[in-house]
Amino acid sequence: MVKKRFNDHPFAYHQELELEIATLTNQGVGLGRVPLAAPEAESSKLEAPAPAGAGWVVMVPFALPGERVRARVFRNHQNYSEADLVEVLTPSPDRVAPRCPLFGRCGGCQYQNLAYAEQLHWKQRQVRELLQHLAGIESPVAPVIASPRAFGYRSKITPHFNGGLWKPDTGKDENPPIGFLRQGSRHDIVDVPRCEIATEAINQALLDIRTDVRSRLKAGEFKRGATLLLRHAVEGVITDYDAVITEEIPLPPPGSGGQAPKSLRLRFLARDFFQNNPFILPVFAGYVRDEAAASGARFLIDAYCGSGLFALAAAASFVRVAGVELSATSIAFAAENAAANGITNARFVAGDAAAIFAGVDFPPGETVVVIDPPRKGCDASFLQQLVAFGPRAVVYVSCDPATQMRDLRRFLAAGYALTAVQPFDLFPQTRHLECVITLRKTC
Does 20 participate in catalysis according to the annotation? Predict the structure, then answer.
């Protein structure tokens, strides 16, 4: 295979630059600008910082706003370059020592070198900028609601390994890596004996699992690579993808009421999607419930309902609730979860992708819809059906605010007004966050 020729405009391969980092992108990367010298004045190092908003964009992972750094260019794109951080010349006062010794090599975390309060500040700013750039509107963004745990919060990890690596007659590594993709790589795996953002129970189980996998690799059981599952649930740490597991969520009382929290127990398959930070989940689910109820609607539809989290958390606030989901297995679990929690006003429908709302008879003007689509956002067909249904309000939950703001444009064009933007930090130390926006129909 012929290697692609390096594009040397505007910088040579591994040319070093000095620049100041102005901001953090929503991808968790430091962004700075450098002035481009005239051809006759080019040198191997650019010294002067560019004026604000001017100059060629350079992306530098793990560099923080306000820092002056030395970076080494490894790729030039049409309108920006990517560079590795070589040295921090002037550190940010918010720079901290990362807890994980693999930080910067493992691709899982982007912000362990940034004080947690500043992580929250930048995530709020990133949502506000996405609103401006992708939705074309200025809107207040509430402060990010922090996770109760900044480390040790993640209840699911999926380490990878490559198969067929160990052969006693080749002298290859007897301990092939079991972990996560290396920063900036699509194939190279970093060995991760411990994950600082995972729960302690998962890290304890990981020790034995790594020993077992390496023993089986030596026995030649794995001809191909594989992905492991470690999921911390009520039953303990589960490694079987097809096991039925339980999550328990102590819900806060609705609104400002003073009643004791109610515990919601949900069962589903270990491989199914479910939020992976149980410590923030009660306030997160409670907020979605309260925003839906504040619309004044009498009925609720939970699209993308999964095993029923939002529908069942909100059921007591509505006359009737319906969950819609394409997965028949998830619908079966949602119905079982309703019965197990004594919820009688909720039903669940296996929707057809071409007619998502066909099985729901709620009057649109009295209905609020909760949506929690995958990272890619809502597809055009779903948005078309939702807008045609015309609910009173929509509460849109997203793990990718960029695709959420893209979809927001469609709602605004259909006569909905944005009334609230509330980010939640379900993923401390990483660039990821959940964002909940509330929309009300105005025409």
Answer: no
